[in-house]
Write a structure and sequence with these properties.
The protein has helices at about 35-50, 65-70, 75-100, 125-130, 150-160, 195-200, 205-215, 230-235, and strands spanning about 15-20, 55-60, 105-110, 120, 135-140, 165-170, 175, 185-190, 190, 220-225, 240-245. By secondary structure, it is of the alpha/beta class. The chain has a single domain, classed as Acetylglutamate kinase-like (Carbamate kinase). The chain has a 9-stranded mixed beta sheet with strand order 4-3-5-2-1-6-10-11-9, sandwiched between helices. It is globular. The N and C termini lie far apart (about 40 Å).
Amino acid sequence: MPASDQAPLQPTYRRILLKLSGEALMGEKAYGIDPAVTAQIAQDVHEIQGLGVQTAIVIGGGNIFRGVAASARGMDRATGDYMGMLATVINALALQDALEQHGVLTRVMSAIEMRAVSEPFIRRRAIRHLEKGRAVIFAAGTGNPYFTTDTAAALRAMEMKADVIMKATKVDGIYTADPMKDPSAQRYDRISYLQVLERRLQVMDATAISLCMDNRLPILVFNLRTPGNLRRAVLGEAIGSTVSA
């Protein structure tokens, strides 16, 4: 069949929430943002937007500041968490710039109001942006201390009625132990929410896993560093590990 006559590829997921850690933006750097990494993420998102997939993104701030780590050194936990939320806004703006350089219309929506650089988070407006084909980056977590960006990702995914949370990591799925430290670690293709909680696997924090379990929202964990993996994931190819009921 000639290429022009082939049926267009149909994505398995129509609306996704992509969860990025702040550390993912560092690449091989020890701190901050690697423009080459944001450019690759932007290219991956551009590819799936071309398939008609609506893309929401929640981003962490650990490459700049971690509230939990500061709290362990004596800083007030709430203050540290608010500083971490501001770090996520810096990351969101960097990613927005990369996405727009790849031709992806993008909106940053912050749970902490900063009208000069972002829109305030309003659920219906966010859904409207997605319906219009814009990528939406949710910054500042939930806007509350003591809640991680994992929990923010689960919450925003539910609010956006996403089909799946795609958690991008530096390994190709969920393992019985850290594969970077334990060569004998075994990878799970599929695992249940309860097994993740019982085995204390570091997929997302317990609050986020519980939220997903209560609302039967699947989580796909995959390797972000392999170009094209995001496209493969939305097309339903067997990559990474899936957490479901």
